[in-house]
Amino acid sequence: MLKKRPKLVILSSNYPSYENHYGDGFVHSRLKYYTIDFDIVVIGYRPFEASRNYVYEGITVHNHSRKSDFVADIDAEKPDVMGIHFVGGWFYDAFLKKLTIPVFIWVHGEEALGWYRRMYYMNWKKIREFLTYVAKNVFQLFHLRRIIRHSNKNSNIKFIFVSEWMKKIAETDTFCKIKHFNIIPNPIDTSLFQYKEKTLEKSRKILLIRSFETRKYANDIAVAAINLLRAKEIFPTLQFDIYGKGKFYDKITASVADLENVNLHNHLIPNHEIPAVHSEFGIFLCPTRQDAQGVSMCEAMSSGLVPVTTDNTAIPEFVENGKTGYLTSNAEELALAIEKLVNDYPQFSYISKNASEAIKLKSGHETVIAAELKLLNEGV
């Protein structure tokens, strides 16, 4: 008689679908490997959409529009172990404090950062909207602190942070030390994002793939760097491609829209198509105002692109300046880093290879999935 496989329930409210390829793909990139050991059901709470069940690339998903149905489904599935991505503060009273099964809570950023760390959301014309965000954030952190204290007393709940920076900030902003935790980055599928040696021609081709829906990703600083490079002799030999979508896209890219060597693509790219785009470029331009890891940057590194990024938040945990990429502080330093790479092909090639090897060791899917499966299985 075959042994029954344990049931793993994952709570994720933005799981990808065939209509929403831009959901939380970093959750799906784990689960497709978890099926080796577990029967999996994803349960999500999406209050502004009709409830629906679907299957996405072999993973069963239940999305609910009502909290009561969401909570009831968790109980009905009778999980042996649970994983949560982006924990809601209201989860604690609704069901978390009653659970005795192993629960692993992945902390990615949005759910564990104080509002004052996201002042780039601030818009004086929409002050009421911002104050609503502040109130929700205070509520979230209050209840996250309760979850942490429960975890410290009852070790069935454990936290997984994608970076050391993320853990440190979560503890600071909740005023609470966390006893039961692991640091495991989001997995980068190195079989999908394979290293390809970059030619001299491709070392002069610069790629940016970002959401333009928020100021978080510092796309304005990236464009400022491109404008600074216009004064350099090398500029006509460079090619920039900017992929993205969001309310700030037209405004941010307006100053470079008329340049012959800047190609604008006002759309995002399905994840499975990104490696083909990576293969045509050598430098990944990705400054940021805040990142708990920088998944798109890590994917580009895996493909052999050299990241030119920002020396802040968790980025230095994934990029070593001058060895696996360049860490900068402003548009001038971004432009200088690109100029250095373009004028020194041997150095560019050295960093390109190092970037791919380093990210494979740190957050390659084989390393990460093995670590996460070990924790889940030990929990069961």
Automatic annotation (TrEMBL):
CDD domains on file: GT4_PimA-like
Name this polypeptide is given: Glycosyltransferase family 4 protein
Organism: Chitinophaga hostae
Species classification: Bacteria, Pseudomonadati, Bacteroidota, Chitinophagia, Chitinophagales
